[in-house]
Specification:
The chain has 421 residues and is α/β, with parallel strands linked by helices. It is built from 15 helices and 14 strands. The protein has helices spanning 11-21, 35-40, 55-64, 86-98, 147-151, 165-174, 178-182, 187-205, 213-225, 233-241, 249-261, 292-298, 303-307, 310-330, 370-383, and strands at 24-28, 45-48, 76-79, 104-108, 125-129, 145-146, 159-160, 334-340, 346-353, 358-364, 396-399, 403-406, 412-415, 419-420. A hairpin with a 5-residue loop joins β12 (403-406) and β13 (412-415). The longest helix has 21 residues, at 310-330. It is globular and about 65 Å long.
Length: 421
Amino acid sequence: MKTKNYISRISDKLLRSLLESTGAVLVEGAKWCGKTQSSLQIANSVVYMQDPDEGPGYLAMADTKPSLLLEGEPPLLLDEWQMAPVIWDAVRFAVDKRALMGQFILTGSVTPSDGETIHSGTGRIARMLMRPMSLFESNESNGKVSIRDLFEGDTDIAAKSTLSIEQIAHSICRGGWPAAVISEKQSPRTAMNYVDAVINLDIQSVDGVEKDTERVRLLLQSLARNISTLATSKTIMDDMQVNEASITDKTLNVYLNALRRIFVIEDVPAWQPSLRSKTAIRTANKRQFVDPSIATAALRTNATGILRDFETFGFLFESLCTRDLRVYSQAIDGGVFHYRDKSDLESDLIIKLNDGRWAPVEVKLGNKQIEEAAANLIKLSQKVDTEKMYQPTFLMVITGGQVAYRRPDGVLVIPIGCLRD
């Protein structure tokens, strides 16, 4: 069921692989990130639960005999399945009964509440988190340097990016939303429309708890001002209380959990390695959105605005790099973390593969901080207890510059406009 104007995604290969090894795959992630279009490239039939004409009939069918919804030619795509949570258990049962691979694809923009499904789906339904497009997917990174190749020991990284600082600022504000990437006319408003939808519609229906739209807006703005930092809940509350004195810790947690369930925020977890010394490691998550454009849209700013505030630009650039590294590392069976210890030694990001290999990453928009970043990476590599875990496969500084090169100390300096999976 291939669609026109489809831009290939790095996750396409992963989705196909999962369908070859399990009966059903759940593709989840933020609205507008491309879950449905990506799934349609593989599906042979589809049920749109949000179809205004057919949807009411589908919901009635789910209430009476949900198995009728599963009669399409496999792989059958069940789009926004969480509108009828009983579908989950019907799919699980059908997978067991058919005993065949690649039967169903479920897409969802909301994580259902606990108790809405009977079975976990373990062993029958695989999960794949989809994020907005990386710069390589949007054809803005030339992909001359592969993260996969770096982990395989290929550090011959002589390459040059064509992305200017102004283009990076534009990409941050436009975001990785496929509709914005395809249509430059639509792109200036896409992220702002997304944030407005989150505030006025999506967050209201996620858990049955009515939420004050102005509080949601203030929360998103506070998270945007604290993006790529270890800001505590108290910091967020204090920031919000400048304009909304009645916010409480309990209310804040309800709102944050709702934003997580609709995949708006995706904080970076702390990495906890084995160290040679007994240095205390900070375990707080780093504040992050699933796409940097959510921050700029919440603050109602644009590329011109962030270019005037280089400090904020730096935090947003780290958010962009976080999104891209998450997309790239997912393709090689890995994830992204951050590191900071009591002595304030830190690594902005840690790429960790499930086989134990890892690499620390510093993110620096300009070239002036590269020396300090390289020193931090080397210091961290020397601090890790290599008798209990691997040595870092490589040390990398991601920049907004143009030239990729290997320093005499072995640290790799790579522009974001050269990276790919």
